[in-house]
Amino acid sequence: MEQYRTRSPEYGPRRDRPRPPRQPVPSQAGRGAGGEPVRAARPPGPRRRPAPVRRPAPVPSPAAAGLPNPRLTGLGSGLFCTAVMFLLGALCAALFGASLTAYGVLFLPVCVLTALWVRPGDLMTAPVVVPIAFAVGLLPVADDEGGTGTLMGLVTALATQAGWLYGGTLVTGLIVIARRIRLVHRRRAAGARPPH
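^ thats the sequence. predicted structure below, dont judge the formating
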């Protein structure tokens, strides 16, 4: 009666069969009978890919290490810009006698910070919140003389300081567009890179 093999090859050789020859010692490994090098045969099976090489994160320069780099949401950037502009408006009213030129000059760095600190997913909100913050910050600076009230002073200040408003919004828009282009290029480069 014939006995069939019941053991699958994945469990290794049977004990009653002779063992395969041993590997040569390291000093003889890779040498044939005549001393010439011999390529070792790869064992059968799935080919393993090498693990991806992890590169360490770039070390920030000492000058940049002390600078804050927050990532604000769309709402956070709006609140930041509005609060800072209102405080700067109150400061201009107290120190400079409601100087609209000083207020306009201080508006530009706030625009730059808002555009740089908004997170990548909310980039397009920065050019929207900047003009709103400019108008809110004008409330303490706007003149309300002549009995027409703060609203008329606000409208007058917006009309006379439109250059600062447009300039700050333009700076914010340019920074946001540059960041967006850089983000798209990074995503395309990451997608085009072959997997390791």
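The mean pLDDT is 79.
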